[in-house]
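so my prof wants the structure for this chain in the tokens format not the other one, which i didnt know existed until like an hour ago. anyway here's the sequence
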Amino acid sequence: KGRAEGVVQHLLNLYIKRNDLFRLPFLGDSQLEKQFLSGFSYVDTPDQLRAWKEISSDLSSCSPMDRLLCGDVGFGKTELAIRAAFRVVLSKKRVVVLAPTTILAGQLYSSFSARLEPSAVSVEMVSRFRSRGALSEIKKHILKGKNDVLVGTHALLNDDIYLNNIGLFIIDEEHRFGVVHKEKIKGFKASVDVL
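here's what i got, hopefully its the right format
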């Protein structure tokens, strides 16, 4: 019971701290966003429409978002995350997408790349399958402002360069991360938008 109360108190303190933070709203460009949304090859479900409206409202506010998006496989959660990423990139901030496994990171990289790269959004991936040279190039791109979205595993949490100029932190299947990684993730929840 004592440990549960401690977790609740920590979360309450985190939400109080987040409510006191101010950040410029991610307003995006209505024309570009409308064009981007029309590129989705499926019809949005009522739940997707409602969830996107809520996410869009969070991004347009002056307080960092901390939203949990739940749904069955095929609900379209990844599409909603991609839309949020697009909005944040339009506001000149980077997006980091964190996945618990290399396979899932690869799937997310494919999805984000397919949707975002036609709109001139740079998407890169960090994983154990990337060479040191490739990872070095990615870091150079980040430092030069040439990376918009970075997808990867917990390895992203181990290098501050990967986390430079982040506006949105997308975490897929957070429950599958270990205690050490969850503690590091908690640190970001105090200052950036989280989905």
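also thought this was worth mentioning. The chain has a mean pLDDT of 86.
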